[in-house]
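2024-03-11 09:14:02 DEBUG pipeline.ingest accepted 1 chain
2024-03-11 09:14:02 DEBUG pipeline.ingest length=203
2024-03-11 09:14:03 DEBUG pipeline.predict start
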Amino acid sequence: MIDLYCERTAAGLLNEPLNALSNLGFLFVAVLAWRRARRDDLADVAVLAVVLAAIGIGSGLFHTFATAWAQWLDVLPILAFQVVFLALYLGRVAGLGTASVGAAVSVFVLTAIAAAQSPAVLNGSLGYLPALVVLGWLGLDAWRRSGRRSLALAAGLFSLALVARSVDNALCATWPWGTHFLWHLLNAVVLYLAIGGYAAQRA
């Protein structure tokens, strides 16, 4: 059993009900993103919607089974979404060439992996700081290009989500349910705003 969050107090499939059920938020916004992709005929947005659904499924399995294999199903879709989103934005919105996109994505992945090597810092949230920096930069870029603020809003909301993730274990004594479920719910909105902002730039 992997016990990382305040809500889990013992082994068992139902020991993290809030953390597990809050992943329905990812599935809900994945459906909305998929409908947007069909409406605007954007295959790349459909890909993002599918990866978003995988995040919800993988995270739901991890917070249910709390095993090593489930943890990989939680981590990999999150990384995949970040990589695919960054590559699509840099290539199809910013207009960078394949080599530049590849170099930028490689630097991002290596930085995120390096940051994740300190799981005790910020309750494991340090690994997401590169994503926050990149999302903030993309938000400013999108705002400059078109005046649209969806990505900038997503970056601001993501910072709040990181706070919820970081303080989870620190609040166990006073709030036994923890705050990790808020990380899920806020991130569902963050990812939907990010996809919507990207779709608007593409359209």
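2024-03-11 09:14:41 DEBUG pipeline.report The helical segments are 17-21, 24-40, 43-65, 68-93, 98-115, 129-146, 150-166, 180-202.
2024-03-11 09:14:41 DEBUG pipeline.predict end
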